[in-house]
Specification:
Blueprint (H helix, E strand, L loop, with lengths): L6 H14 L3 H5 L6 H8 L6 E5 L5 H9 L4 E6 L2 H13 L6 E5 L7 H5 L4 E7 L8 H10 L1 E12 L7 H12 L9 H11 L4 E6 L4 E6 L1
């Protein structure tokens, strides 16, 4: 998933995904782990607005919209290429009346500006922060998009802290090919953001630290 930066970053992401977007979902299912658990934990109430930051191909929103048929879904991405693919998939799924897309920068956005909706009850970032250079700003913006009782859910690469060193090194080299950088201080950043907002963080390492799952409530 991609979602942040300036015009240069948008061009970079379009270049990366110009061809990759056509096989993205088929290939990423093997190593973007924890996405479905995040979707299960969203649990929006009927009528709630759900925002995905860096929506990529729309895969997550389609699954979430089917799971929560009475919620409204919004997603944005910085890559026009990904948004084209996402819209086709959403149209094919028959969900264009419940999922709205826009182009936006995760480090500087507003729901009102993108969608005409003031706030969302749920915001989620799925393997997005590891692709956004100003990723801390993306966390701040995501929290700012929440209603007072809303929740921010994050899933991304961990530090593989319980995996062999060789496996960690191999994964790092592989991710670098796609301009992905796992954030070693992701947990600290989420804790600081939660404290500043007067909220609480639930943080769960999965698959021996391969994936980190966080929720600010």
């Amino acid at each position: 998933m991609s979602g942040g930066g300036d015009a240069a970053h948008a061009r970079l992401m379009d270049g990366v995904y110009r061809s990759q977007r056509h096989i993205y979902d088929a290939t990423r299912k093997y190593y973007l782990l924890g996405r479905d658990r995040l979707i299960r934990e969203l649990k929006p109430a009927p009528g709630h607005a759900v925002l995905e930051v860096g929506c990529g191909t729309g895969r997550n929103m389609i699954l979430a919209a089917r799971r929560y048929p009475q919620a409204r879904f919004y997603g944005f991405d910085i890559s026009e290429m990904m948004l084209e693919t996402a819209q086709r998939k959403i149209d094919k799924a028959g969900l264009s009346d419940r999922i709205t897309l826009a182009q936006g920068d995760a480090s500087d956005f507003s729901m009102a500006g993108l969608f005409g909706v003031e706030k969302a009850e749920r915001v989620f970032c799925s393997y997005t922060l590891s692709m956004i250079p100003p990723w801390r700003a993306a966390i701040e913006q995501s929290l700012a998009a929440l209603t007072p009782g809303g929740e921010l859910h994050v899933v991304d690469f961990g530090q593989q802290e319980r995996l062999p060193a060789a496996a960690r090194a191999l994964l790092g080299r592989w991710l670098a090919l796609f301009h992905v950088t796992a954030r070693p201080d992701l947990r600290d950043a989420l804790e600081q953001a939660a404290d500043a907002a007067g909220r609480e963080l639930a943080f769960t390492p999965l698959y021996r630290g391969y994936t980190w799952l966080g929720a600010i409530r």
